[in-house]
User: What shape does this take?
Amino acid sequence: MENEALEVIYTRRSVRSFTGEAISRESLMKILKAGMAAPSARNIQPWAFVAVTERGPLDSLCERLPYAKMLDKAGAAIIVCGLPGKDAVSVGQYKDAIGGKYWVLDCSAAAENILLACHAMGFGAVWTAAYPNEDRMAVVRDVIGVPEDVMPLAVIPIGVPRDKGKVTDKFKEANIHWDRW
Amino acid sequence: MENEALEVIYTRRSVRSFTGEAISRESLMKILKAGMAAPSARNIQPWAFVAVTERGPLDSLCERLPYAKMLDKAGAAIIVCGLPGKDAVSVGQYKDAIGGKYWVLDCSAAAENILLACHAMGFGAVWTAAYPNEDRMAVVRDVIGVPEDVMPLAVIPIGVPRDKGKVTDKFKEANIHWDRW
Assistant: This one.
C-alpha cells in the first residue's frame, strides 16, 4: 500500500488541459467520497459539494471566472463549499474554540483529497480559488444558485488529461527545521 | 494504482493513541515530501515544517497544548507553518489576488498530504489545530522558537498506532448537489 499511495501524492500535478470527455456520475461519487473522508475540526464536516456535469453551467463558469478557462474542455467540475454556520453553531460547546473559522481549513483538506482521488483514477484536475475572492464567489453563487450563507471555496475542473504532462518535485530541504526553528 | 490510493484516502482516521516507538528521520523525510507536494496558489509554496523528534519539545508541547495530549506517546510531530509574507510579497503581481490569505488553504492541503502519507506508511497521525487560536500559536512559538511572522497552523503528532481503530464512513449523499444548489 505504501508505495502506490505515496506515488499518487508525489506525482499529482495541476492539469489544465483536457480532452473534453465526460466524467461519469459513478466516478464523481468516488471522488466526492474522497472529499468527505477529510478530517474536520471536531468532526463537524462543514462542507457541501456541487458536482457540475452539464455544459450550460460549466460554460457559464468558464466565461465568467478569470482563472477557470480550462472548464471549456473539462468533463465535470466539483465546487467545494464551506458551511460557516454549521461550524459556528457547534462552537459554543468548546470553551477555547473560535467561531466559524475552521471551515476554511477543513474544506481545503477536502479539496486536496478530491485532487488526489482524481489523479489516482487517471483524471486530471486543478484547484481554482473562489474564496476569499468576493467577485469569484459571487459568480459561483449566481451561476449555481449557492445561498449567501454558503461559501464557495474552490472550483475544481476535472477531465481526462490531454497529455502526460510533467511533474515538478517541490521538495526543498530548506523548508524543514529539526526540533527548533 | 487506483484502488490502493483511494483506499488510503478512504481509510485514513485520526489516531490519538500511540505505542511510544520513535519515527525515523528517513520516514519523516518521506512524509515531509508529501506535504511539499501539495498545490499552492500561484505555486508560491508558502510553508515551512518543523519536525520534532526530541522528547524535550514534544513533552513541553504535550503539557502546554490543550488538545495535543497524545504527544506523550507520539514518536514525532510535524508542525505545519504558514509564511504569509511569502504569500503577500507575490501578490502585487496579480491584480485580483488577495494579500496573504491563500497560505491558510495551501498549508491545509499540505497538512492533509502529511496525514495521508503517515497512513500510507502504517503510521497514525492527527491534526491538532494551532491557527487560528492565538494562545496555542503562542505556545508553539515559545517552545519551538517560531518567529512572529510565521504562523504555526497545525501540530501533527505521529506514531505507531496502539490499536487497529475503527474507520467511520463520512460519505453523505445529502452533501452533494448536482449542477445546481
About this structure: Chain B touches chain A through 76 residues (CB under 8 Å). The radius of gyration of chain B is 17 Å. The beta strands of chain B are 47-52, 76-82, 124-125, 128-129, 151-159, 176-178.
